[in-house]
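INFO worker-7 received task bundle
INFO bundle size: 2
INFO processing item 0
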Amino acid sequence: MRKQWWAAAAVLTVAVVAAGLVWFKPWALWVDETVNEALPTGSAAPPSRTPSAAPSVPTTSPAAPTTVAQGTFTSHEHTTTGTVKLIRLSDGSHTVRLENLDTSNGPDLRVWLTDAPVKEGKAGWHVFDDGTYVSLGKLKGNKGDQNYAVPADVDLSGLTSVTIWCDRFDVSFGAAPLA
């Protein structure tokens, strides 16, 4: 009976450790993923041409990408540095650009546009899922420059911050106000 108890305890211990490793992914804290994307320019429509007509010359050049708002990251659960820019592209679409991002890697990290104020310290760790937020997708890498397209139907007027959000543990790694 005692051998069976020890065997059952050993199996249970291995199962708990394996589940913990899968859930927490502690190795991600030591693995960096660097992404260096160029700023997108937008997809301006090409000039229309008719087969028999001479090539048309556009009368105006497309507008250059414009920074609408920007901010600097404040660290929360993990040290996070870099800047965030909300950029209007030449075609009128918007993108969130993370520049010189440096944060810890982690499980299930997302980039969110939110209406929450950025607070320093523990007071800011859990506020971003309390109100309105739009997930722009999974964080592509924990270091570097990267772009996240803002869906065309998103009303940007009330969204005032960007957070690197750990969806697994409902906590902000870092956030930046957009001003």
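INFO item 0 finished
INFO processing item 1
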Amino acid sequence: MPQQKTDASFGKKEKLKSQKIIGQLFTEGKSLSVFPLKLIYIETENQEVSIKAAVTVPKKNFKSAVHRNKIKRLLRESYRLNKGVVFNNTQGNFAFLFLYLGKEIPAFTDVESKMKLLLEKFNARIHEKTNA
């Protein structure tokens, strides 16, 4: 399958902001984990883009907003760089929520490698479901 070139940005239209969909993610969403990241996803309908994503870091693990925001920036950047893995290989619309489960601030290289593994795991699950 030829790789399509994707836009390496994470624009406004790709950000998941709907409280309704975020609530659905927690109640009905399916999840995948590659420690310290967890992906919760659901299939959605009628989106401008095929995948909308959000990131979150629990306040319970990181009391300091500065640290939470740093980790969220790392998660968004690693998703932005690796989203082509998913965009080029899936049909349908999805909502993603990335959770950071670790207890300490990670290095970017660690986050990026785990993000790649997580997105590849998602692809494998989706292809397994469609081919079954």
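INFO item 1 finished
INFO post-check item 1: The longest helix spans residues 108-131.
INFO post-check item 1: The domain at 16-131 is CATH 3.30.230.10 (Ribosomal Protein S5; domain 2).
INFO worker-7 idle
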